Amino acid sequence: VATLLGTLDPVSATRLDAIRGPFPRRTPDVRVLADFSQNTACQLATLGFAAGVDFGKLLKGTKFQSAFSHSPFAVLRGVTFESRLRENNYALTVDLLREPLGLAVTGARMVNLRDGFPSGPGRMPARLKATNDLLGPILRGDPAATNWLDGAVLRGTIGGMEAFFEADALGVRTATREIRVAEVKSFPKVDDRVDPDQLGSALDQSALYVLLARDAVAALGADPERCVSDRVMLITPRNVGLTPTLSEQRISARVTRMQRVFVGIPNFGDVAASTPADISFGLVADQKADEQKRLDKLNDIADRVGTAYTPSCMTSCANARFCRTRAVRAGDPCVSGTTAVRLLPEILTLGRAAVLTRGATPTTGEGPAATLLERAGRLIDEAAPTLGSPPTPARRTA
Amino acid sequence: VNHLDITLAARAFAIGRALRKSTVRHRRLVPNPIAVVLWQLGAEPFSAPAIGWGESHTKPHMAVTGEPRNRALAFAALLEFAKWFNPRFEAHGSDRETFTRGDYTFSVARTAPQVVVANRATVEFLGRLGRRLAYLPTDGKWAVDPALVRFGRHLRFLWDHHSKPAQQLIVSMTDLMNAHWATPQSESERASLSALDAFIEPSAGLNGFDAAAAAELCPVGPIPDGEDDERLMPLVEKFNAARNGSTDPALIAPLLVPIAEHYRPLLRRTWDLLWRSRDREVELAEGSSVARRWDADRDAYTRHMDWMNRNGLRRTRQTPRQAATTLRNLEESGRLVEAEEACDDPLRMAAYVLANKAVRGMVVAVDPTHKEPGPKRMVVRPLVTLRSPDACLIPVGRELWWTGQPDGKEFVVEDVSPAPGGGSDVVLKLMTSSGITSFPAVGERACFSIHSTRPEWLGTLPDDDPWTHRPATPPALAEPIEDATPSEV
User: Can you give the pTM of this predicted structure?
Assistant: First the structure.
């Protein structure tokens, strides 16, 4: 697919294609990258990310298929809000940005880089070129330069391959010629507050665009730190309706963190080279194949490359339900969370921990935690002697 | 999470089923609560497409909106609920008992309402609905029914009160169950009512994890499942086409039927789950300090009703002074709840014994006439010697309270010495001779912990706010959050 420019050597590229199997490569957009960055310790996720495997579809049709689903109403809300911002030649957006960007009373130059590019392999490169063509005059201080680049396309290098990222918008402050990243989200702002979780992920996305915009500016020969502000703009609906409102925040810490995420992404060529020769997701993703065979194959891959399940995978990785079941079967303490792992050093399974709470003899390594477990078990038996006795008969009605 | 939780989780893992982590119920559950089930439309934050409510498991009521993005339709469904809810919620406020403290006489409602919902997300959703309704005008062009505004203010109060530790006016069922059950599930799994319920009572022959993995695919609300909304989309489109912009109830009612049929099984599923979970928790006997917390809830409810009769408006942003007071009050009630629960429940206390914040054992000696030099003359400071079966690591000088009388005076650890058989003999000195605080007798089992249920002096703020806490502009007064011209879909 066109969003990846083949900068990998042909051997690695062919190898990654073979690992993925006969399915289209998943394009690493900002969400994919954000999800991957949640758990870079997982070898299975890294391999899937490098090979462009769409984990959302990998286990479709099996009992472990991804539980992520998007409500069409939620999608519609986002689309409606974005189109309101573009209505009447960006009338609402211009009003909103007039003061923060110092736009002239008339004649703000708003460009929509989503329109006018034919779909197909050439679309993203063409939009990238258009973005760079517009950035040039801005950096030169041309008075006729654009004020608002809606849907600007930026280029990034992910694991040695180049990928395109579409920013919601880039704004330009007229007085200082400073570029500001803008993010459009459809969650509401009420009483000057937005949902902190949703705000966090929006700002993380903005941090990525700040980094990429700085790269683009540097490539054009300007000072990236001065020309691209780390003060980003968030456009959300205000209150109940869809009237837009602007919030601004400085996100230098998030930009630094995003930079570290970038550095931490392994080179895809190295991933391809270190993967055993016969590993391929082809059979796993084949929805016509037998379910058990598909799962056996994925289990085999997971055994050989290794996984690192943590409960936070459930919100970021579409394979998490599969990995969770593996962790439960193995009795891995990580199923209860990272604190459980920390409190059970050298104790490899929850089953073993349960035995130690009843006073089993610990090994030398288990010693420190086992002492506490044994004492906790004794205290529980003392406080509630009947706890854990056979259950009361189930009264299930449903 | 501490080693006691991990121990329970590991044992629950081994038997494939949840374990109780308390010996008593630490929350009041009233016989006839108001149960509420809500669904949200996609990511629309301020209107509910389907609402289920009722006072008994067998008699659920239901309202659907059809097009919740339309203000008139959204408010019509909420009004139906409001007209049922308001009289039941407000009725408790009229039956009062009167107290006199010195010259001051006040009255408190004898009973209070209890709203039961599935999870914290539902509480948040009710809070958002309250924010939308509570400040609406009741006159002028955009006037709404006053019942809707009253309803909004009640919801706003409940949402606000929810931040108080261990309050019982609005019960989020997952929070209640997590306070009473240990499972080896992760935090996000424990936030799902269906997964938690499945782990507590797995279907016959199933391991808790497998039961929970199957159950978690059925969402409880208010966040809808994408596939459910996928099926709903054509129904809503058809509904909108058929009503052709009209919001006339007579015309709408028959058109709502397919949408109601879509939501009926979803509401029913959560409804059954909610009541089954509640009925399971009712079986556990109530802890002894729950009554004190229920009194505090009745008090808060009474103040809310009194305020409703005077004005009823609340700020949506606190002043710095309010924020400081609120935080201090929350911290103090959190401390008190922790102490009360530990003193009510030996299983809770076990965590503190494990962490060397409490010591329990057999009283082997008592010296009620022990004297030592006070500031002016000799004073009586009774000594209690406790034989702990475990080595006691509590340092000398630490203040502890007897769990038999946690609101009494403190005991100070006077001496810790090794006891025959591996434990410790702990000598505790009662810091009063007045007789208001008693102590255990020889041969009794006793526990002393860092927990005191004596109310603490909270201090007062200075009359003038310091310059660091004076905002340039005072927080804005609450206003309606409707658009100037409500948009009609």
Answer: 0.92
